[in-house]
């Protein structure tokens, strides 16, 4: 059955058209609030780490290479989806509720530990490394990585519009830490001349402190993570929420194909192409580009890196809000935005590989352009990912499970290649201002 677009648009603000029940149902504001807060908890831990990178690279023993180490730690969190996949094959999804609670609780504990011990270092193979930072990054990443295959499918029992609300929450998980990080600042870095004991004059780097350190920042993030955990508990156990669940959700075999193709063959072809697009997008957005961002942005200054990192996260919820009020299932729009992502990706890769002397390095135009390209890419990529999730949502729990799997596969591949390029073959060179 095809959903009439005019009917859908007419009721989308106060009421929603349920694809599962083929009827207009009243929308509940408290479900919007709870699913949004639940979505915030999915990636706020990982996003908060990225927003602190402009500060952390200044003091961490890894320096500019720190993002590549953290990307590997984050993608190692994919052991969570792998373990869950084996668990699901054996036990199905009947234990998803306690597993979700356990994952959320571990995220709360990890971020509060991060607040107190993120700057503790140790020796690994004779070199000093941020061992606590990397270890807690892994446990925090378990939440985000597992959310793709555990959190999202849990919404299959609610009307499909709440999936969009959840994705908006995921976008807010990037906006909130980025907004706080912009207020926090990174301090200022200058070069000053010093005279050594031998009378030789040299330039050294002098850095002033940010408004507050990363410790209080992570405490605030931990409080938000607690609220996300409570929201999930309300969705699962609060009687008013349980009454809103769909009695017969789409099955795992994806028998509902509303609006995704006229035949089974066309539907399967569409799903494969969309999953391929999703894999490529997350390869860059979640894996490769975060690893090389310091090399792409830092030659333009710490402030350029600061704004590129945080405004990119803010672009995520903006894209989600745009998708909320547009035809997010348009394949034409998806492929057009993919073209924009391609152009911006080429530019960002070019600046990274030309470091420490990328184009327009000592000009305001270069600073504005590099920040704009990073924001443009992540805004378009966020819209594409949400649109693909909305289309695959019509396939039920299994469609979203495959979406989550391909997301983690693509992200892991990108992070591994980034780590190889930076730390093994060392193709990317850092820039020292002094």
Automatic annotation (TrEMBL):
Membrane topology: Multi-pass membrane protein
Spans traversing the lipid bilayer: 29-46, 66-87, 99-118, 130-152, 164-187, 217-238, 272-292, 304-326, 333-354, 366-388, 400-422
Keywords, alphabetical: Cell membrane, Membrane, Transmembrane, Transmembrane helix, Transport
PANTHER family assigned: RIBOFLAVIN TRANSPORTER, SOLUTE CARRIER FAMILY 52
Annotated GO CC locations: plasma membrane
Native organism: Macrosiphum euphorbiae
One Pfam family in the UniProt entry: SLC52_ribofla_tr
Lineage: Eukaryota, Metazoa, Ecdysozoa, Arthropoda, Hexapoda
Domain of life, source organism: Eukaryota
InterPro entries given in the database record: Riboflavin_transptr (IPR009357)
Catalysed reaction, written as an equation: riboflavin(in) = riboflavin(out)
Function text: Plasma membrane transporter mediating the uptake by cells of the water soluble vitamin B2/riboflavin that plays a key role in biochemical oxidation-reduction reactions of the carbohydrate, lipid, and amino acid metabolism.
GO molecular function: riboflavin transmembrane transporter activity
Protein's cellular compartments: Cell membrane
Similarity remark: Belongs to the riboflavin transporter family.
Protein name: Riboflavin transporter
